[in-house]
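Q&A FORM
Asked by: J.P.
Topic: structure of TM2 domain-containing protein

PROVIDED:
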Amino acid sequence: MASQTQKNPVIAVVLSALLCGLGQMYNGQIGKGILFAVIQFINVLLFMVFIGYVTYLIFWIYNMIDAYKQAEKRNENHTM
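REPLIED BY: S.T.
REPLY: Here is the structure written out as tokens.
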């Protein structure tokens, strides 16, 4: 198994705050990061029907929480 470097959960959150999915990519979850970016792009399109304002905010917060938890999980697996 390839050695995994530890990831800083705070950096993962900051990257996710800047661009949805970027924190997941930082954690090595490229596919998930791209999926999150696409979902958030769809949420932006939904601004035209106002539901996007709610879905964008909810998904943006979820994205940051997920990035943080995944970085912690990766670090726990690395230390074992």
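FOLLOW-UP: Helices lie at 9-18, 22-26, 30-45, 51-79.
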